[in-house]
Amino acid sequence: MAESKTLEGLRQKLGEKIRDIEEKNERRTYVKLFEADLPDAARLLLDGGGRLAIITGIDTRNGIELLYHFFLAEEHRFITVKVLARKPQPRMVSLAPWLPAANWAEREIQDLLGVTFDNHPDPRRLLLADSWPEGVHPLRRDFRGLPK
Q: Where are the alpha helices (DSSP H) in 30-100?
């Protein structure tokens, strides 16, 4: 399978910062990074013609795994950047100050998974009611319902 020019550029510019690359098929690649390297990777993907499609999150034993799905229309490929926001207080740098497409997705993940996005321009709740209890996140592994 031929490597995408954007993925090749990521390899060249991020080098040792890339922890792992998994190519599922010619249209889907996962790139695992440390959280500090996320902004550089996002900028490289955007500069390479990509656009942020969505951000998803998964609660794992070690933290909240965040998956930033970038679509490269010219290459007909998704490159997903995977980073881990470590528990018990998961934090991640916000991309929203310079990437507006990240705004609502980060707020949704904050509500549902409890990740704090540092320097987010609008950290208000997005999905949960204002009366929802602080520190209760419905997509966390330990969620057992609302306190009585």
A: 38-47
Instruction: Take residue 59 and report the two structure tokens written for it.
Output: 């609660």
Number of domains in the chain: 1
pTM: 0.94
CATH code (residue 65): 3.30.460.80
How are the residues of the chain apportioned to helix, strand and coil, as percentages rounded to the nearest 5? 30, 35, 35
Q: How far apart are CA 49 and CA 142, in angstroms?
A: 39
**Cis omega (within 30 of 0) for bond into 138:** no
Question: For the segment 21-42, what is each residue's pLDDT rounded down to a tens digit?
Answer: 999 998 999 999 999 999 999 9
Residue 107 belongs to a domain: no
Range of the domain at 38: 5-89
